[in-house]
Design a protein that fits this description.
The complex is a heterodimer of chains A (457) and B (70). Chain A is of the alpha+beta class. Chain A has 3 domains: 4-100, Rossmann fold (3-Layer(aba) Sandwich); 129-197, Dna Ligase, domain 1; 203-456, ATP-grasp fold, B domain (D-amino Acid Aminotransferase, Chain A, domain 1, 2-Layer Sandwich). Chain A is 36% helix and 25% strand. Chain A has 15 helices and 22 strands. Chain A has helices at 11-24, 40-44, 60-69, 86-94, 104-111, 113-122, 140-147, 170-188, 245-261, 292-299, 303-311, 391-404, 414-422, 424-427, 435-456, and strands at 4-7, 27-32, 47-50, 74-76, 98-99, 151-155, 165-167, 193-197, 203-211, 217-229, 232-238, 266-275, 278-285, 328-335, 337-338, 344-345, 348-349, 352-354, 361-365, 372-373, 380-388, 406-408. In chain A, a hairpin with a 5-residue loop joins strand 9 and strand 10. The termini of chain A are far apart. Chain B has one domain: RNA polymerase II/Efflux pump adaptor protein, barrel-sandwich hybrid domain (OB fold (Dihydrolipoamide Acetyltransferase, E2P)). Chain B is built from no helices and 8 strands. Chain B has strands spanning 2-5, 10-15, 22-23, 28-34, 37-42, 47-52, 59-60, 65-69. In chain B, the strands form 2 sheets. Chain B has a 4-stranded antiparallel β-sheet, with no helix packed on it. Chain B starts with a strand and ends with a strand. The chains are: A alpha+beta (457), B mainly beta (70).
Chain lengths: 457, 70
């Protein structure tokens, strides 16, 4: 096992990695940028290195330098920032530091969306019909007619929802191709785009995989992540209410085949769109996910500890249930945004915090009373998770926990999450990626009613 | 003198007006970057830009005066 690990990240995920290191008896080094001196990850870590510039979580050279200076043997990238940057993974290797994640080669292979698509096809996993891989689209109109409108135009080297356009007609398609190529060129320095069939109301379902250097590769079941706003997930749960045992088995097998095809090592997530009993590979995230806790509650496996064990060359440890899922888990992302005002950001200082402590509830966060929520970073302040023997019990416990959780000083999505837990469409499990868009007005009006009732009370 | 104040902490990403420009109520005058999101700052009244109290990339705090109008 490693003696010391540097965590090249901040916020709740840095705290989570420090906790895993504590459990494993590994010393930790935190990094921070100016203004974060009192952040929880900084005060929790055994050692701290201050980085001089606010953009330094993206500075490969500075992070490698900090790792070498602190004599850490390994680096955990967390999620976001440089976690899926193959040059960063390679720079670690070149500096003699172990990168806790897959190889630079595996990251690169999945980073190019069109290439990843071809790889999935080669591994026998279905993708949405569309352009093959690289190269010129000979006749886009003919292609769109063959797969059927509407179609999606996507940047081959893109990510994060940028450069994506939907076209319902020939004219819209030609516009989307031109605008998509322009935007892709500006954002990703490569104007290549591809076309695929657009599904109106699929479910977004992803499978957690874990692979070690001893040839063990497992799928740890799925997470349903359909509740999103502008491609940002807000609520995740496992298992998916829309998947039966037979489909689940095929999804798990497909995810392992994708991981196997690129010689993947570590924890990763294979994302699929599920529609009318069929599933299509979307992409693979080559890092720990924000919502990994859902799978941890279901399987009893500590995914962050396993990432570290695997990077240290140890075989994975799937006790107590050999990776088998039990019960139901839900996660609500608590973000510093105001749903009543178009999800406007709400940075600020926490004046009062009360965290729910009851059974089968988990709170992953960097908040404390007095903590600062910086406008420089993204708005996720915490993740509230609940486990139940079935979905109904998980929802009941989540409601109980949401009612206890109190964060004063900033505006958050806690009240919105409460009304979602009571929404008949959510309770029935009938969610697709359109859920929030379709239900937001209804949810916001119930939100306004609850708020005014509280005021009267 | 009327002022346009900052609605939340963030960094000035784009300034859309210059001194002497007429602005209308509801018009976007500045775009902030806060929590990795773009947030437009709009004028609450009609007027003419008299002074701009920030420059692009500046950190600005909640309630800070960004633009003065006459």
């Amino acid at each position: 096992m490693f003696e010391k690990i540097l965590i090249a990240n901040r916020g709740e995920i840095a705290v989570r990695v420090i906790q895993a290191c504590r459990d494993l008896g590994v010393r930790t080094v935190a990094v921070h940028v100016p203004g974060e001196e009192t952040s929880l990850h900084v005060t929790m870590a055994d050692e701290v290195i201050s980085l001089p510039d606010r953009k330094d979580y993206l500075n490969v050279a500075r992070l490698i330098e900090a790792t070498l200076e602190s004599n850490a043997n390994a680096l955990h990238p967390g999620y976001g920032f440089l976690s899926e940057n193959p040059d960063f993974a390679q720079a670690c290797v070149d500096a003699g530091v172990i990168f806790i994640g897959p190889s630079a080669e595996a990251i690169s292979k999945m980073g190019v969306k069109a290439g990843a698509r071809q790889m999935a096809l080669d591994a026998g996993v279905e993708v949405l019909p569309g352009t093959g891989t690289h190269g010129v689209i000979d006749d886009p109109i003919e292609l769109a007619k063959r797969v059927g409108f509407p179609v999606l135009v996507k940047a081959s080297y893109g990510g994060g929802g940028r450069g994506i356009r939907v076209a319902y007609t020939d004219a819209e398609l030609l516009d989307a191709l031109a605008a998509g190529a322009r935007e892709a060129q500006m954002a990703f320095a490569n104007g290549e785009v591809y076309i695929e069939k657009f599904l109106e109301t699929p479910r977004h379902v992803e499978v957690q995989v874990l692979c070690d250097t001893h040839g063990n590769r497992v799928a740890l079941g799925e997470r349903e992540c359909s509740i999103q706003r502008r491609r940002q997930k807000l609520i995740e749960e496992g298992p998916s209410p829309g998947i039966d045992a037979e489909l689940r088995q095929r999804l798990n097998q497909a995810a392992v085949r994708v991981a196997e095809a690129i010689g993947y090592v570590g924890a990763g997530t294979v994302e699929f769109l599920v529609d009318a009993g069929r599933f299509y590979f979307m992409e693979m995230n080559t890092r720990i996910q924000v919502e990994h806790g859902v799978t941890e509650l279901l399987t009893g496996v500590d995914l962050v500890s396993e990432q570290i064990r695997i990077a240290a060359g140890l075989p994975m440890d799937l006790r107590p249930r050999q990776g088998r899922s039990e019960g139901w888990a839900i996660e609500c992302r608590i973000v510093a945004e105001d749903p009543a005002r178009q999800f406007r950001p709400s940075p600020g200082q926490i004046t009062h915090l009360h965290v729910p402590h009851g059974p089968w509830v988990r709170w992953d966060s960097y908040l404390y009373s007095g903590a600062k929520v910086s406008p420089m970073f993204d708005s996720l302040v915490g993740k509230l998770l609940a486990w139940g023997r079935d979905r109904q019990e998980a929802i009941a416990r989540m409601k109980r926990a949401l009612n206890e959780l109190r964060i004063d000083g900033i505006t958050t999505t806690i009240p919105l999450m409460r009304v979602v837990m009571d929404d008949p469409v959510f309770v029935a499990g009938g969610t697709s990626v359109r859920y929030l868009e379709d239900r937001l007005d209804t949810l916001l009006s119930s939100l306004a009613q609850t708020t005014s009732m509280e005021t009267v009370k | 003198m009327k002022t346009i104040k900052c609605p939340m902490a963030g960094n000035v990403w784009k300034i859309l007006v210059k001194v002497g420009d007429p602005v209308a109520k509801g018009q976007d005058v500045i775009i902030l970057e806060s929590m990795k999101m773009e947030v437009p700052v709009t004028s609450e009244s009609d007027g003419t830009v008299a002074e701009i109290h920030c420059k692009e990339e500046d950190f600005v705090d909640d309630n800070q005066t960004l633009v003065s109008l006459t």
